[in-house]
Task: inverse folding
């Protein structure tokens, strides 16, 4: 019996079945072309793609399937998040940059970790050997050999197929036909064991959610105990201060009660009424100070027009950057790692402050430089309890301070996680990071504060964070005009470079597209000539313009699909009576079509 086209129901009863949901995860190293491939499937603009530093998802429709595809960032420190998506996935698309020979070993290692994971093993895996348009790209056989793909697939009982492709060369109906074939193959193989895979997905997802719920519960209990300890210490501290006041004696260090600490950065539109007014400042003989290096603005300064300041928050992944920013905002301190970037607009006195929180993953750090030009200052967060990565922290900090767009600007270093056992103190961190030497060589005003962002939020924010941010804004204010002039100049130059890069890239893609269109035109002419001469050609392939996109956005399924489906099922009943009633095996759900059968 002849096999039906992949993804098309073989009987009318199957066509009438309810829609079935499928979840796919798109994995691969950073810069492999995952997002470009997904954009090609959607028919989007391929020139407007930027690296995925987090994740994105899209809902598509194919036949009886509602397909959700998660495109996960491929940075080295983001990959640890992949496992949270494995349980609910029915299959995997692993995209390989077949032109990046230097990272082929790393690609093979990552692929092995994915296929060997208990939540992935046994599920269908499509490998797309992308960037075949690049010079020196490996072919299918070379990719299989480099990644030991056959061995991996057999050991982990994964149906696996690899197809060479180039996602950048076509979008929508012009999408590279190899991507179409691959996705057809993947959905077909999921369909073969749909019930079993779906049952496994439901079971694995339920177990994973139970584990995550228990983790959150344990973490909340740990934080509750920490907060109780802190509240007790604060209460004892207040009692001691009150006692000292009654007895008219001094205490070693006068610090304000946490409940009276003003948040130095407040959300715009929600400026706390407790901020000192002009009249209050006028009545004071001395300016207020948050530390020996920090002073509140004088009366004349408060009357100046609003000034804009941009800060970048940098540091290794898991240093506590996002937690620190949440503490400033007064938000919930239960956070997840930043795998891209986020920003918030805040207000302090005469400053409107925009803070960019940038993900700290190793392969994301290359994106930091795009934010340097417009920044007035830097907040560098250090995990002072992570002794194993202190050398890496020092190296990264040196790269930041030595960058020509950062050198000379004020830098605040927050030695975070002081609540953790074994955390380094200020002097140790200065020594380990060679901070004094770095600051002097690059002419950066620099200060380091010990803190613990997790212990307080909003008005209860760790006072060291408050002092540090006061210090940073004060030092920016000292040279505000010069720094702002530099920011404007650097930003204009950077935008000009980026515009030229986009122009060059567009020209390169235009030439590639022209070459492809010329080849397509020659191919069509050859087919037409062969048809007129009634002769066969070696391989009959459809014109790119008539390739139907296998995955189409839900709500925009091409009416052409429906028409073809109706025509296919419009056979008269009497034709079936004339047929012999001998039974033939239904090969469409037992074996793959010959042109897509796996040879492993």
Result:
């Amino acid at each position: 019996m002849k096999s039906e086209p992949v993804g098309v129901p073989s009987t009318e009863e199957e066509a009438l079945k309810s829609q079935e949901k499928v979840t796919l995860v798109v994995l691969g190293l950073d810069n492999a072309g995952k997002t470009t491939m997904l954009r090609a499937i959607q028919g989007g603009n391929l020139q407007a793609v930027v690296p995925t530093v987090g994740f994105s998802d899209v809902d598509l429709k194919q036949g009886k399937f509602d397909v959700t595809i998660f495109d996960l960032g491929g940075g080295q420190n983001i990959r640890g998040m992949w496992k949270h998506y494995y349980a609910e996935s029915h299959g995997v698309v692993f995209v390989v940059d077949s032109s990046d020979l230097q990272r082929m070993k790393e690609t093979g290692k990552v692929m092995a970790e994915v296929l060997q994971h208990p939540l992935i093993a046994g599920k269908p895996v499509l490998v797309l050997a992308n960037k075949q348009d690049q010079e020196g790209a490996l072919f299918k056989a070379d990719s299989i050999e480099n990644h030991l793909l056959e061995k991996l697939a057999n050991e982990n009982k994964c149906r696996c197929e690899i197809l060479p492709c180039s996602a950048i060369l076509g979008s929508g109906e012009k999408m590279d036909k190899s991507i179409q074939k691959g996705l057809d193959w993947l959905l077909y193989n999921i369909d073969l064991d749909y019930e079993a895979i779906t049952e496994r997905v439901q079971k694995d997802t339920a177990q994973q959610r139970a584990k995550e719920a228990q983790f959150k519960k344990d973490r909340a209990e740990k934080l509750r105990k920490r907060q109780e300890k802190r509240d007790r210490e604060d209460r004892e501290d207040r009692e001691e201060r009150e006692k000292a006041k009654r007895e008219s004696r001094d205490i070693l260090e006068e610090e304000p009660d946490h409940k009276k600490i003003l948040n130095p950065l407040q959300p715009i539109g929600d400026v706390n009424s407790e901020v000192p007014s002009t009249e209050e400042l006028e009545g004071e003989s001395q300016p207020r100070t948050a530390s020996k290096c920090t002073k509140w603005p004088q009366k004349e300064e408060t009357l100046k027009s609003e000034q804009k300041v941009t800060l970048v928050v940098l540091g290794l992944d898991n240093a506590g950057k996002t937690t620190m920013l949440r503490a400033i905002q007064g938000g919930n301190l239960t956070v997840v790692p930043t795998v891209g970037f986020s920003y918030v607009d805040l207000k302090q006195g005469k400053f409107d402050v925009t803070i960019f929180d940038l993900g700290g993953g190793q392969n994301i750090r290359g994106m930091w430089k795009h934010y340097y030009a417009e920044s007035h200052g830097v907040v560098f967060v250090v995990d002072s309890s992570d002794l194993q990565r202190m050398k890496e922290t020092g190296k990264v900090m040196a790269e930041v301070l030595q960058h020509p767009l950062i050198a000379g600007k004020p830098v605040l270093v927050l030695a975070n996680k002081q609540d953790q056992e074994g955390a380094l103190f200020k002097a140790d961190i200065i020594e380990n990071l060679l901070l004094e030497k770095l600051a002097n060589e690059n002419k950066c005003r620099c200060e380091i504060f010990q803190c613990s962002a997790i212990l307080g939020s909003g008005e209860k924010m760790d006072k060291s964070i408050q002092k540090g941010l006061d210090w940073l804004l004060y030092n920016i204010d000292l040279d505000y005009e010069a720094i702002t002039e530099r920011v404007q100049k650097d930003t204009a130059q950077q935008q000009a470079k980026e515009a030229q890069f986009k122009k060059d890239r567009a020209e390169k893609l235009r030439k590639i597209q022209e070459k492809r269109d010329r080849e397509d035109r020659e191919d069509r002419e050859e087919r037409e000539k062969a048809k007129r001469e009634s002769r066969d050609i070696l391989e009959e392939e459809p014109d790119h313009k008539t390739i139907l996109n296998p995955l189409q956005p839900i709500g925009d399924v091409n009416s052409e699909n429906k028409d073809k489906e109706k025509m296919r099922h419009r056979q008269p009943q009497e034709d079936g009576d004339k047929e012999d009633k001998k039974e033939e095996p239904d090969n469409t759900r037992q074996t793959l079509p010959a042109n897509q059968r796996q040879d492993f």
About this structure: The chain is about 40% helix and 15% strand. Confidence is low (pLDDT under 50) at residues 1-17, 254-304, 540-551, 577-600.
